[in-house]
Amino acid sequence: MQKVILDVDTGIDDALGIMLATESEELDILGITTVSGNVSLEQATRNTLKVLQLVGKENEINVYPGAFEPLIRKKFHEHRVHGNDGLGEALTDMELHARPSSKHAANFIIEQVHRYPKEVTLIMTAPLTNLVHVLKQDPTFARDIKRVIFMGGAAKTQGNVTPVAEFNIYADPEAAKIVFHSGIPLTMVGLDVTMKTLLHDYHVDELKGSRYYDFIHKSTQYYMNFRQFDEVITACPMHDPLAVGVAIDPTMIQTESLYVDVETESSLCDGQTVCDLRFQINQKENMDVALDVDSDRFISMLLHRLK
């Protein structure tokens, strides 16, 4: 089993990512950390506890709240996509039984990585703020972390919150810039691949009769009804679940080692991940970038495990 920590800002696709992780015997989930992103830190923490309760893991996996705001910017949430509560109102009636840990997310991550040097993979499906707090506290962290797989950015495709920026990077680009230059082994799972892994209505219908069908049906319908670029999205991109899937089976994606930086000072391109695809910047590669994915294999695995 691979030791992992999930770092989330639990909206709809984060929830599906948590569910996939808890249903995957390959992963030993040491804990889940939360951060401000799709929703506030408080709401993300509450949503994470609800999802763990839904899957029956509320007494086995602890939740550690982290950063309540970006490093220097104002908070930016995505209620348009995920609803006021972040879960498309799918679990509003659930009464919580568990409480989050009093330990800060950064302290938990540092503790676990040094407890299991070179064994822990951090799966980040949110803005990278918590990891910067880790790096500020512990300059030796990069030496002991196995790898960080993060959902964020776009190499060859357009953004999903501006024409060029993906949400997780846009929400805290300064944090992403620090992480990208930290020397940590990184895998970028961005929009180039997540926009190819689409969950359609007919996929959700395959889950009828399963314990998760009601939640998945209600939450993904909210997601699918979101209008963007004057078009109706008729499927749910599995952004965050794919990052979990890559931890389970890295062969699902094809990557290239590239130099990637983040724009933080542009009025038009703020939050853009600039990927040196043609090796023109003359900088050393700093991460593996996912450029293609076996989407059918991933969706099949996701449905099989959620059944």
TrEMBL record:
Keyword Hydrolase: yes
Entry keywords, A to Z: Glycosidase, Hydrolase
Record protein name field: Nucleoside hydrolase
GO MF annotation, one: hydrolase activity
Entries under PANTHER family matching the protein: INOSINE-URIDINE PREFERRING NUCLEOSIDE HYDROLASE, URIDINE NUCLEOSIDASE
Native source organism of the sequence: Terrilactibacillus laevilacticus
Inosine/uridine-preferring nucleoside hydrolase domain: residues covered: 4-299
UniProt keyword annotation of Hydrolase present: yes
CDD domains linked to this entry: nuc_hydro_CaPnhB (cd02650)
